Amino acid sequence: MVIHSKSGSPRDGSPDAVRGGGDPRYLRQTCEQSLKNLGIETLDVFCMSRVDPNVPVEESVRGMAELVSEGKTRFISLSECSAQSLRRGSAVHPLASLQMEYSLFSRDAEEQGQIDACKELGMAMMAYAVLGRGMLSAELRKLEEMTADDIRADLPRFHSANVEKNLELRRALDAIACRENATLTQLSIAWPMAQGSRAGGFIVPIPGAKSRKHLEENVRAAEIVLTAEDLAEIDRIVPPGAASGTRYPIGQMHRVNI
């Protein structure tokens, strides 16, 4: 088991505000709070949630490196940063991984260079939201059925202007999954693993599981072998940029790829 803890970002109540979180003092505070909450002495990986536009990434990584030298975490990593920030940060201290949204519907990491940078730097890439935040799962809810605390109600890909196009893509992918004797969920997890295996298997999907049934379904995705022909067909259906709508509300997109 690997314990991976993220720092989070300070919030001031404004949804579109530029949030910080890169100050070494804040990173130390959140790391130590995680250790206290978990009742352990050392994290396996401590990850900075977002690059702070007000703090050079080198300064943030240097502060996290001090936590490594003090034995409070074994490794450090970054999340949702640019390829340039990965290279700048790794020049200060080795980075174990990049956590970034990456799925059949979110292929920004290919276009923006993060996957190439991870490969170049010998880092893992942790792909989150591999099920398109539910758009690629069997239990897709309609917008009007979502509860008040469901963040997807604010995500453009679930808005009426975009959802029908995305469901059309989903149906085409579901046909491939059926051909593979798999669920759409399993195809969506197998795909990033197949992408990573082309270059040594450095892409690790991290799907959620709210039940044992979901966990077992997720694990069986490792048994799916996608051929070059399968991957080419998937690329034709969902090339980078195919999904309709941004992955976060427009006002929050400035928090990624910094």
Gist of the model:
The chain has 258 residues and is α/β, with parallel strands linked by helices.
Please describe the topology of this protein:
Blueprint: E1 4-6, H1 24-38, E2 43-48, H2 57-69, E3 73-79, H3 83-90, E4 97-101, H4 108-111, H5 114-121, E5 124-128, H6 160-179, H7 184-197, E6 203-205, H8 212-219, H9 228-237
Parallel strand pairs: 1-2, 2-3, 3-4, 4-5, 5-6
Helix pairs in contact: 1-2, 2-3, 3-5
Description:
By secondary structure, the chain is of the alpha/beta class. The chain contains nine helices and six strands, in the order βαβαβαβααβααβαα. Strands 1-2-3-4-5-6 form a six-stranded parallel beta sheet. Helix 2 (57-69) packs across helix 3. The radius of gyration is 19 Å and the shape is globular.
Descriptive terms for the model:
single chain; 258 residues; alpha/beta; six-stranded parallel sheet; globular
**End-to-end distance:** 30 Å
Q: Quick one: overall form? A: globular
Beta percentage is: 5-15%
Determine the fraction of residues in helical runs and give it as a percent range: 25-40%
Q: How would a crystallographer describe the biggest sheet?
A: 6 strands, parallel
Q: Spatial order of the strands in the main sheet?
A: 1-2-3-4-5-6
The number of helical elements comes to 9
Calculate Rg over CA atoms: 19 Å
The average pLDDT score comes to: 90
- Summing up helix and strand content along with how strands pair, one would put the structural category as alpha/beta
Low-confidence stretches: none
- Number of extended strands: 6
**What string, H for helix and E for strand, traces the elements in order?**
EHEHEHEHHEHHEHH
